[in-house]
Amino acid sequence: MVEAAIIVPAILNGLTTGAVYALVALGLTLIYGVLHIINFAHGALLMVALYGVYFLYALAGIDPYLALPIMIPAMFALGYLLQRYVIGRAGHGKDENVMLVTLGLSIVIENLALYLWSSDTRTIETAYGFATVDLGVALIAVPKAVAFVGALAITAVLWALMRWTDLGKAIRALARERRGAQLVGIDVEHLYAVSFGIGIACLGAAACLLLPSYYASPHIGSAFVLIAFTIVVLGGMGSFIGALVGGLIIGVTESLGGLFLGESLGKIGVFLIFIAVLLFRPTGLFGQRV
Amino acid sequence: MAEPLLKVDGLHAGYGAVEILRGIALAVDEGEIVAVLGSNGAGKTTLNNVLSGLLRAWRGSICFEGEVIANRPPQAIVERGIIQVPEGRSIFPTLTVRENLELGSYRRARARRAANFDRACAIFPRLRERLGQFAGTLSGGEQQMLAIGRAVMAEPRLLILDEPSLGLSPRLVEEMFGLIARLNEEGCTILLVEQNVMQTLTIADHAFVLENGMVTLSGSAPAVMDDATLKRSYLGI
Predict the structure, then answer these.
(1) Which of A103, A179, A203, B55 could lock onto A46 through a cystine, CB 3.0 to 4.6 A?
(2) What phi and psi, each to the nearest 5 degrees, are found at residue B223?
(3) Interface of B with A (CB under 8 A)
(4) Is 1.10.3470 the CATH classification of the domain at A2-280?
(5) Where is the domain boundary, B109, B134, B154?
(6) Residue A256 has what pLDDT?
(7) Which residue of B has its CA nearest to A174?
(8) Would you say A287 and A237 are in contact if contact means Cβ atoms under 8 Å apart?
(9) How many domains does chain B have?
(10) Residues with Cβ < 8 Å from A213, sequence gap 6 or more?
(11) Is residue B1 part of a domain?
(12) How close is the nearest chain A Cα to the Cα of B237, in Å?
């Protein structure tokens, strides 16, 4: 079967991309679920993370995968500070203000990147960049296989953190019951910032996994953020498992779309799903009914 | 005479420009049940929220164990042992009963979580049967038990109960007052805020009656019960 020989690798490739999409969407859905704000700066911050990984490699020679323990805490800190001292302060507790602040941030960050680093696309060359692993049914590029496993592993760690630690329980408690959280002694402003920080730390991890098979440029964020929004809507706003399943579905859809319709028209499938979900299941696959 | 556990003096507070509390003074001694009575809008919940740090005090002082705690953040007040069970319970609906209880010791008494967990389950056997269930699926009475159980987890020095009998069936109300008396016998000081005047006064040591944001009557529970003003305003006698 000639068909299967093409389709199977396309699906596998889609899953690898989808796992990284899921990681990006996970950050977005966590921030939405806890702070009830839509972070329009998500794409711009992913771009910053990609440049971070690029410069760590280009200037200090640090391999992108070894940059994980640097990028995750660094992006967490950036997210924490942004929420605590910029978004939280400027928002005055009003959703429409917060929306404008995150949107404004994304514009400022993108144009700063354009000014500082020009619009050139930057790639890195690693020894394993063009290596492949043979899965029997298909050959998969090593960076993609690593990205898949890495993204799933980080998702699992995050899930365990949210499920079993006091921090995770407190974040879930705060997401639904702010007053109750205050009355058990949860420092609400701190925990909002921690949640935002974790959401942004996901971008740091995603950037490390992406860069060996991808590139950095000032406008790279917008490509991801539209897809991440689609995943969050598909999976259900604020749903953890929804972001993961949604990410994989969108990854495969995009890959198969590219196979049958070509690279530029291929993305149409992603947005057809987006519209279909809004029409027929607005709460998403795993969303809670209001 | 020993210093009271909680001492409030000349307390003013409100929402926006509207003043709700207009000079409250009250004191709670260690080991007591102190009732705060008043009709809707008298300022009872506002008082609780100021005590818990959820709402700013405009003027006046709040001292707990001799330390000024007015306008400290809620987590600092929880840390000192003032634990409020609010009206409407504020349990965490999407967490399990077990997780709700565990978070009761998020800020305080974390080291003794296991022992306090057993204690909360002993006080509320119904909760033990439902540990794995989401708190949002509990009945109203069970949610009230969970809210109190969550507070017990923090080993309160002062437990503030805001209308614990609200929305419960008469039998459960009876049970609730019995339970409050029992918690008190076990050594917990309680500030009981209620509309249910007669039942509250039978278990309380002292009572303060709030009207329009001021204390209009106070004294020992039997004295307050006998007071003509109270009878007139609450019982229509």
Answers:
(1) A203
(2) -65, -40
(3) 52-54, 73-75, 78-79, 83-86, 89-95, 99-100, 102-104, 106-108, 110, 150, 154
(4) yes
(5) B154
(6) 92
(7) B92
(8) yes
(9) 2
(10) A129, A141, A143, A144, A147
(11) no
(12) 39
